[in-house]
Specification:
Layout lengths: L4 E4 L2 E4 L3 H12 L4 E5 L15 E2 L11 H11 L6 H20 L14 E2 L9 E2 L5 H24 L6 E5 L1 E9 L2 E9 L5 E5 L2 E4 L20 H8 L4 E2 L4 E10 L11 H4 L3 E3 L23 H7 L15 H13 L9 E4 L6 H7 L1 H11 L8 E10 L2 E2 L14 E3 L16 H24 L6 H16 L6 H15 L6 H18 L12 H25 L22 E7 L4 E7 L5 H4 L4 H4 L5 H6 L4
Parallel strand pairs: 1-10, 2-3, 2-11, 3-7, 11-18
Antiparallel strand pairs: 4-6, 5-6, 8-9, 9-10, 12-17, 12-19, 13-16, 14-15, 15-16, 19-20
Helix pairs in contact: 1-4, 1-11, 2-3, 3-11, 5-15, 9-10, 13-14, 13-15, 14-15
Length: 627
């Protein structure tokens, strides 16, 4: 603590992906001083993994599209467990956020008429994803970084210091969010390179840390995805909502080992890629749920015609929502019809020429050819489900992104819950980042202007510093790498894509045992360049996430979206009305049921009543909305 740095800002943003950067822009443009914390290198956010596009109902390819259709698709994809207000705001505001990106310099692919091009994606009724080849997330981050630099350059001209009002702190880990008098006062952490400690005083904190994938054994997430924001929020007194819902993206590479878990963008299926089992059968036609049978083709001829005549044919079942495709692949593998490496085949080479594949899917072709020797222009890929995204997250107020119960705390992006319900549609993540990143920045700015400073006490600083030093004061304790490997085995085997009550109960016991042992984790050596030091804190975060997931999964006795119970295989309309709220009492995670906010009449009326009957109780249908 003797070498502790001290910084003072109006708004502190933890996370430098799309949501964090959009929040930073909004807060800075409101006239506030902003710090951006980046766990890894600036620009290396997981946002770049969102390759296919950003969903926004601009209607550039099919003018039948509008916010109401997008809202309906989002609610269907989430099996109507979404917070209706978040889905509404997202559908209404996404087009403006995409056009805004273009003004800031994003170079989207174009239609023949010169408009922003939009492509098909699973669960979207019309071509809706604005895209830059298959590198859309990378372009979003590049554009947002450039916007940050433009604001810094403006500050430089006006103050003589480019970092006077917005500064990026890269390769820095936050270990604790600080509160005084029940309100946010700042955050504490350390430089990853040196281990030296850093205090940030700020009356508003925006959490935009992304996901939890490294809690699981096979994941598309990079090393940063350790649930830091979810755990920081819990420990600061916030709630998590619906943590049982994890999205296993249906198409992660399973072979060769050099690319295991790496995502194969949904764009491959959107451009015509088909899924086949080891017998050569195009199997998805067998797995179309009743609620989707009116929208998805039940034969190959119609599915193939859809690519050239979407108005008169139903969609290919390869473009079902991700949860449905992932379960179908899992079923084929379990039935013995998978590849020898435990996946299925995804092939786009039979529909598109090599030239077109390289133009539309340049990253996919390049990375798998270079890293795995797989040429997707000539041969199929071996794919299977990989832990990709968490729908659960911090419980927030939709309009302000304020964390419920903690004044001064905000959350946006993957770390926030509610928007996607039980399953996220592909493409909604990037527009989610922009819509709610902006709203979090607005909310934080308004809060600071209304509440002012909230100084950090010496006692809070001393406690946070002691926590960072603790692993070095223990001798002969547990190894964080071994415990992390144990945790990943538990989540993969017992709380994975298919669950049972007995397995979840076993998982809860094992997670509790690992948590107990983690209190004795010791770290040898010094703080500099010490990955074991970093993992000691990441492990604590992942254990909180895993406990929240398992306990929420045990309570939900149905199958819905990203939560599948073998012992409760069907959806239950009564359970659709329930959110699970996780909180932390300092010793364990506690989960309680909370009513889902009912949809108002004007949104209820956007749906055909016969469709709603598949999801809602007779009492809800009779009421016809909450107004």
């Amino acid at each position: 603590m003797a070498n502790m740095e001290r910084h003072k800002y109006d708004v502190l943003i933890i996370g430098a992906g799309g949501a964090g950067l959009r929040a930073a822009v909004e807060a800075r443009e409101a006239g506030l001083r902003v710090a951006i914390i980046c766990k890894s290198l600036f620009g290396k956010a997981h946002t770049v993994m969102a390759e296919g596009g950003a969903a926004a109902s601009m209607g550039n390819v099919n003018d039948n599209d509008n916010w109401m259709v997008h809202f309906r698709d989002t609610m269907r994809g989430g099996k109507f467990l979404n917070h209706y207000r978040m889905a509404e705001l997202h559908a209404k505001e996404s087009p403006e956020r995409i056009w805004e990106l273009e003004v800031w310099g994003a170079l989207f692919d174009r239609t023949k008429e010169g408009k922003i091009s939009q492509r098909n994606f699973g669960g979207h009724e019309y071509p809706r994803l604005a895209h830059v080849g298959d590198r859309t997330g990378l372009e979003l981050i590049r554009t947002m970084q450039q916007r940050i630099v433009a604001l810094q350059q403006k500050d430089g001209r006006e103050t003589g210091d480019m970092e006077s009002h917005i500064k990026v702190f890269a390769e820095l880990t936050i270990t604790e969010i600080l509160k005084e008098n029940g309100k946010i006062s700042g955050a504490y952490g350390y430089w990853r390179e040196s281990g030296e400690e850093v205090l940030f005083e700020a009356p508003a904190v925006v959490i935009a840390t992304g996901g939890v994938g490294k809690t699981f054994k096979i994941t598309s997430n990079s090393w940063e995805g350790t649930g830091d924001g979810h755990a920081l929020a819990l420990k600061a007194g916030a709630n998590l909502v619906d943590m049982e819902f994890l999205q296993f993206h249906p198409t992660g590479m399973v072979w060769p080992p050099s690319v295991r878990g790496i995502l194969v963008t949904e764009s491959v299926r959107g451009e015509g890629g088909i899924l086949t089992n080891s017998l050569g059968e195009r199997f998805m036609f067998k797995y179309i749920p009743d609620v989707f049978k009116d929208k998805y083709a039940d034969n190959e001829a119609e599915a193939d015609r859809w690519y050239t005549d979407q108005d008169n044919n139903r969609r290919p079942p390869e473009l079902l929502p991700r949860d449905e495709v992932a379960r179908a692949i899992n079923s084929e593998v379990k039935a013995g019809r998978g590849t020898e490496h435990g996946g299925v085949f995804l092939d786009v080479s039979k529909r598109l020429s090599a030239e077109v594949i390289k133009k539309r899917l340049p990253s996919m072709w390049h990375q798998f050819y270079e890293l795995a020797g797989v040429d997707i222009t000539k041969e199929p890929m071996e794919v299977g489900p990989t832990c990709h995204y968490v729908m659960g997250g911090v419980e927030v107020e939709p309009d302000t992104a304020a964390a419920v119960g903690v004044p001064g705390l905000f959350a946006a992006g993957e770390v926030a819950g509610g928007m996607h319900g039980s399953n996220r549609l592909g493409g909604n993540s990037l527009s989610d980042l922009l819509v709610f990143g902006r709203r979090a920045g607005m909310g934080a700015a308004a809060y600071v202007k209304s509440n002012g400073e909230n100084p950090v006490s010496d006692a809070a600083i001393k406690s946070a510093a002691a926590r960072i030093e603790a692993p070095f004061s223990r001798e002969g304790g547990e190894n964080s790498y071994s415990l992390h490997a144990e945790l990943q085995e538990v989540t993969h085997n017992l709380v994975g894509i298919i669950r049972t009550g007995k397995e979840i109960e076993e998982a809860i016991e094992k997670i509790a045992d690992i948590r107990k042992r983690s209190a004795n984790v010791s770290v040898s050596g010094g703080r500099k360049f010490n990955p074991g030091f970093h993992l000691a804190f990441d492990l604590d975060n992942m254990l909180l996430v895993a406990e929240s997931t398992a306990k929420s999964a045990l309570r939900r006795e149905e199958s819905r979206g990203g939560h599948t119970r073998d012992d409760f295989p069907g959806m239950n309309s009564t359970w659709r009305q329930v959110n699970h709220i996780s909180s932390f009492d300092g010793k364990q995670v506690n989960v309680k049921a909370q009513p889902l906010p009912p949809m108002p009449k004007e949104l209820f009326d956007l749906f055909d009543i016969h469709e709603l009957e598949k999801y809602m109780t007779p009492e809800e249908i009779a009421k016809g909305g909450s107004n």
